[in-house]
Design brief:
Low-confidence stretches: 1-26
Helix content: 10-25%
Radius of gyration: 33 Å
Number of helices: 3
CATH architecture of one domain: Beta Complex
Strand order of the largest sheet: 1-7-8-5-6
Number of strands: 15
CATH class of one domain: Mainly Beta
Structural class: mainly beta
Order of helices and strands: HHEHEEEEEEEEEEEEEE
Oligomer: single chain
CATH superfamily of one domain: TonB-dependent receptor, plug domain
Shape: globular
Length: 306
């Protein structure tokens, strides 16, 4: 140990003495002109982002939001839940190409029964088993934004069975100016869809605003005979109250007439029906009692086999 200490103390003076010698020799080396100049490299770029998709949320929780700006770029007639696949931790699968027969949603492994769904703050989960019926959602054209809270809920959100998270759909507000919109769509499996929306703009002594929208969609099943039909209507009024805030009144109507994918063949039961019912509406009073049922004699509602 003593020898080591002596060696260290003897080396240090050498290093100190050598330092001026090295510094004195260094300027004598030849140098290129490039090493004498200070070079500045400036890198410029543009941050690319998809408008309306995955907007940043200034909150201390995991939340993803998709706005109408992105929804308007997607295929018309598709369920709005299809856009949730762009969110991390969220997975949605349709039961058919366009979603009129429903689908399944998963969020961080939790199924739809453990995910809360709200429309303009109103819970839409089934009151019995908390199921989510994705084929009964509003049209994408009347949606302002969709947000998903993965694994967390808002304190003021009236949620049910939200252990897996919350999916919140907010509908669009009526526009300030009068206008109309029409969307026509056609696709595979004889798909045809017609959508129309009219905005009134501000009217009346208080500057009330409103819009009304109606859509009709029909297409064949991708497997087996039959078809899927969806008709939907939406209406919304908005009254601005100035510094107090605003108040809205909205209405939603949706009907689905779908043939089951589980049935391979269509064999209507005409027992108790007479020929006089053949030209009547597709929904008639059950001759055997028990309310109203589908009219098996109405050829306009027969299942197609192509």
């Amino acid at each position: 140990m003593q020898l080591t200490k002596k060696l260290l103390t003897s080396v240090c003076p050498v290093a100190i003495l050598a330092a001026p010698f090295v510094l004195g020799i260094t300027p004598a080396f030849a140098q290129s002109t490039g090493t004498q100049e200070v070079e500045t490299v400036v890198v410029t770029g543009t941050r690319l982002s998809t408008n309306g998709l995955m907007n940043a949320a200034p909150i201390s929780k995991e939340r993803s939001t998709i706005t109408s700006e992105f929804l308007n770029t997607q295929i018309a007639g598709q369920t709005v839940f299809q856009a949730l696949n762009f969110m991390p931790g969220v997975n949605f699968t349709n039961n058919d190409p366009y979603g009129s027969s429903g689908g399944n949603i998963r969020m961080h492994g939790q199924d739809g029964n453990h995910i809360s769904l709200t429309l303009d703050g109103m819970p839409l989960n089934d009151t019995g088993n908390y199921a989510i019926y994705t084929n009964q959602m509003v049209d994408a054209e009347v949606v302002d934004r969709i947000s998903a809270n993965q694994g967390s809920t808002d304190v003021d959100s009236p949620t049910a069975a939200a252990t897996g998270g919350v999916v919140a759909i907010v509908t669009d507000k009526p526009h300030d100016d009068f206008g109309a919109e029409a969307v026509l769509t056609g696709g595979s499996y004889s798909d045809q869809r017609y959508f129309g929306r009219v905005d009134t703009g501000k009217f009346g002594p208080w500057g009330t605003q409103a819009f009304a929208a109606l859509s009709w969609q029909d297409y064949d099943k991708y497997k087996g005979p039959g078809e899927l039909r969806k008709i939907q209507g939406n209406i919304k009024f908005l009254q601005d109250l100035g510094s107090v805030g605003w108040i809205t009144l909205a209405g939603h109507w949706n009907t689905n007439r779908n043939n089951s994918y589980y049935g391979e063949y269509y064999a209507p039961n005409t027992t108790g029906f007479t020929s006089s019912l053949a030209a009547q509406a597709d929904i008639v009073k059950n001759p055997s009692g028990g309310g109203y049922i589908a009219n098996p004699l109405n050829t306009s509602t027969r299942l197609r086999t192509h």
